Amino acid sequence: MKTLLYCMLGLSVAACAPKKTENGTPEELSMIVGTYTNGTSKGIYTFRFNQETGIAKPLSSLELPNPSYLTPSEDGKFVYAVSEMNDSTAALSALAFDKKTGNLRLLNAQPTLGADPCYVATNGREVLTANYSGGTMSVFPLLKDGTLDPVDTLYAGSATGPDLIRQRTPHIHCTLFSPDGKYIFATDFSADQILRFVLHPKDVAPHLSSTTIEVEANSGPRHLTFSPNGRNAYLISELSGKVTAFSYDDGNLKQIQSIAADTVAARGSADIHLSPDGKYLYASNRLQEDGIAIFAVHPENGTLTKVGYQLTGIHPRNFNMTPNGKYLLAACRDSNIIEVYERDEISGLLKNTHQDIVVDKPVCVQFIQ
Predict the structure, then answer these.
(1) Which residues constitute the domain of residue 358?
(2) Among 249, 297, 298, CA closest to 272
(3) 233 to each of 179, 191, 203, 227, 257, how far by Cα in Å?
C-alpha cells in the first residue's frame, strides 16, 4: 500500500517506472501476431512478452480475415494489417492499439486493389502494401488520426523470369522505405529485380519515379532489409535460396556478395532480419530442412560468413527478434506455434527455450515497446 501511495504522489519515480533491460529497452513488450484464418484462428492476437524471461502472456484478439502481415506505427498507437484475400475483398485495415490492455480497435479499411496483399510498411505519412497475386504495390495516404485514405497510386510488377510456374504472372512480395527516407524499394519476384522509387513532394508529378535493380535470374526476390547503420541491404530470394548483400548509398544498391541460405534447393526461402546490433543476419527456409540460416556480418564491409543453421518447426514464414536482441521468435505456420529461441549475442547461435506460444497458423510477429 505504501508503494502504491508513493507512486500516486510521485515520490518514488524509480520504483514506479517500468523495468528496463540492460540496453535500456522496456522489459515488457507488446507483441502482435498475425495469422491465416482458414483454420481456427480469429485473426490478430496480442500478448505481453517479457524480453528478459522469454515468457508470453495472452492479452486480446481481433477478428480479421487473413491478417498475414502487419506493422505498427512508430509510436505504437496504430497497427496496419493486410487481409490477404485472393479477390476484391483484399484490404488494408487501420487499427488503434492500446498498449496497456492489448486491445485493438478497427478504425477503417481500404481495398488494396490488388489480390493477396502480403506485406505492409509505413513512414508515418504513407502506407505501402505488396500485393502478391495482384503483382502490384499500393500506396495509401495516411491521415493525422491514423486512418487510411483510398489508394492513390498503384505500381505494377512484371513477369520475365524463367520459372514458367512460379514466375508466370507478376508478384510483388515486399515494399519498404529506405532508412534515409528518400526511396521506396519493392521486390519484383517474377522479374528477378528490385524496383526503386524516388519519393518526390506531393505537389510534384509523378509522386514516385522508378528504376530497376537486376538480380540473378531464377532468384525470385522476396524480402529486403537494411542494416541498422544504413550502409548495407540484404535480400533473401525465395527460389534460389540465396542471400544477396549490397552496399547502400543514397538509393544505390551495389551487389557485394551472394551466399546460400537454402543448401537443399527447396525453393522456399522466406524471411530475413538482422540482429539489433547488426552483427548477425538470419534467413528462414521452408519446404525442406525448415529452419533459419545464421550469418556473421563483417563489421566493415557488411559481407556475410555462415556460422550455423537452426532447425525449426514447419514453415517458418516469418520471424522477429526482441529489441534487446535476447530472443528470436519464429512463426511456424504449419506447426501452429511460435517458437521462442534464446540468442547467443557472441556466437549468434540459437537455443530453443521450449516456451512455445500456441497460435493457429501464425505468420507474422511484431513488437511494440
Answers:
(1) 21-368
(2) 297
(3) 10, 19, 30, 6, 11
**What's the CATH code of the domain at 127?**
2.130.10.10
- Examine the pLDDT at 18 and tell me if it is beyond 80: no
Query: Which residues, at least 6 apart from 300, have a Cβ–Cβ distance to it below 8 Å?
Result: none
Q: What is the distance between the alpha carbons of residues 63 and 223, in angstroms, rounded to a whole number?
A: 27
**Do the domain assignments include residue 1?**
no
Query: What is the number of residues in the chain?
Result: 369
Residue 3 belongs to a domain: no
**Counting beta carbons within 10 angstroms of the beta carbon of residue 236, is it exposed (0 to 12), middle (13 to 18) or buried (19 or more)?**
buried
Cα of 300 vs its chain's centroid, Å: 25
Listed as own residue / partner, the contacts of 205-214 with beta carbons closer than 8 Å and 24 or more positions apart are 207/139, 207/152, 207/153, 208/139, 208/153, 208/155, 208/184, 210/155, 212/188, 213/253
- Asked if the structure places residue 12 within a domain, the reply is no
What pLDDT, in 10s, does the model give residues 152-198? Answer: 999 999 999 999 999 999 999 999 999 999 999 999 999 999 999 99
| Total domains, the chain | 1
218: left (phi over 0), alpha (psi -120 to 50) or beta: left
Query: What is the DSSP secondary-structure string of 236-265?
Result: EETTT-EEEEEEEETTEEEEEEEEES-SS-
